[in-house]
Amino acid sequence: MDKRRALIWNYFNIQSNQSTHAKCNVSSCQQAIKRGQNPSSYSTTPLVNHLRSKHRNLFEQYEAALSQPGTSIVQNLPANQPSILSAFEDVRVWPHDNSKARKITRKVAEMIALDVQPISIVEDSGFKELLTTIEPRYCLPSRPYIRNEIDLLFTEVKTKMKELIAGEFISVTTDIWTSQVNNMCFLSLTCCFVNTDYVRKVLVLNTSPFPGTHSGVNIAEKLQNLVNDWEIPVGKIFFCVSDNASNMKNAITTFGVKWAGCSAHTIQLCVNDAITSQRVITDALKVCRKIIGHFSHSAQACEKLRQVQDQLGMSHKKLIQDVSVRWNSTLRMIERMIDQKAAVTLYSADNNVDQLSSNQWSILDKVVKILKPCEQFTLDVSADTSSLSLIVPGYSLLRSHLLNLGDDHGVQTFKASLIEALDKRFNYYTLDPYICLASFLDPRFKDKYISPVVLDQIKDILGETPDIEVITPEANSAPREQSSCNFWLAEEDVTPATPSTVSHLDSEISEYSSLPRSNMALKDPVCYWKSETRFPALKNWAKQVLSAPASSVRSERVFSTSGNVLSEKRNRLNSNFSEILVLLHDNLPLLK
């Protein structure tokens, strides 16, 4: 396109509804000038002639512009006609430091962390083709470049996490896990706290490689190194929750932090004790496992079972094999066997497979009724909103529920052993004043399940001033949800009393204790204290004490992510980098 043809378009625009004509831009004219019959015959000469004859002053301006050697030939083109430079820009590949390219690269790094994808995905032809289709100008960087981007992302997330926990009282959970892929041991550390807005927060701090012996001294030293890296003073850690292993308890005591055993793990130990106490139950479980093993090793047997299910009008459901370290998997196995009783019995009769007797079926049915409330307790203490406040009331209510459970003929020994195990293993919870303090500060329970001796100890503890800044948010109503746990329904449905002014700690304790307890629809006691303005001293204690979780399930969930990161396809992944990927997977939403 020469200069003369380009500049004329300063004064004309092609008509959108009639491309053979160009419209004069002069507001008093607006005449449509024909520029040819078809694209091959289009010319700007009629436009120049119109300008010469109708708008002499604009024509002279046009001629003067032509005489200037520096005039660009690509300015003021029609809106629907791209310039040559912009056309080249549309197909030119962006360099990696381009702002738009960096934004996409960051999203790729986030996707790898959030979706537990291997970095090698950047070399996969399908992924490359997808990004090229979405944005042809973007060039996917190499694996080392993406690795560096993930490191930068981790630095940003870690800085944000340090800002969140700075100055807060926290509670932590920890556990040890061995990868089946590379046989390396890892120690997890998660923290839980209630922020100044009285919102519960949970962060994953570490899944750190842990070589050497797992002695209490080594674990304590490792924990100290980890909290030092996060700049967390030990004095700011209220509770450390772990499993009930003696080395973990000794390590946390040596570490200088109050220890609480995982209540979910405690239930596991109690149920194991009870199951092994009665021979008729262990025998019935052995038969169940033999039946399930028969189907696990034969595709033909599974197909015949499906045919029997079709014959009986039942849905296709596989039998469930239990896992020794998960008592609830045994419960799932029994429930599925009972659900498929008709199909299993008919199949066993026709195929010479071990069968459960009618008495064993009856025993298993009663075992389910006894274990169901234990499952409910486990689910509640494993929830993200759970706190230590659930343990003592939960134990008391569970024990009462089991004692009042009728129709235990044939499983009396099992039930008695379960209650005995609960009494033995949960006793220390009921005697720990700090754990009971959490229950006292839970408006659903208060002092109902606390002995007078421990209650006096709690009042002495409350006389100490917690090092927490008093921030009183605006009052609002606490959210209410329907409880899913049957044995909690022994708690009364009550209504809060009218607010009043309280000035001294003794008066706060007295008035708080005298108020009706909240009902179990309140899932998180922190919600109550967020809107509470009558008891500032108790509110500060609640912020610290209710941060402690009732179980170490959070650490176990972290290792589930670690198992996905350290997979068979990535068995040579650096352990430190795998920790970065796990932490980003769980904490990256903090940047949103």
Care to give the gist of this entry?
The chain has 24 helices and eight strands.
Account of the 3D structure:
The structure is a single chain. This protein has 592 residues and is α/β, with parallel strands linked by helices. It folds into four domains: 87 residues, no CATH class; 208 residues, no CATH class; 162 residues, no CATH class; 110 residues, no CATH class. 52% of the residues lie in helices and 8% in strands. It is built from 24 helices and eight strands. The chain has a five-stranded mixed sheet with strand order 6-5-4-7-8, with helices on both faces. Helix 7 packs across helix 24, helix 8 crosses helix 9 and helix 16 runs antiparallel to helix 17. The radius of gyration is 36 Å and the shape is elongated.
Task: Calculate Rg over CA atoms.
Answer: 36 Å
Query: Mind summarizing the main beta sheet?
Result: 5 strands, mixed
Flag low-confidence runs.
72-77, 468-485, 492-503
- Tally the beta strands: 8
Number of helices: 24
Which features characterize this protein?
alpha/beta, 8 strands, single chain, 4 domains, elongated, three-stranded antiparallel β-sheet, 592 residues
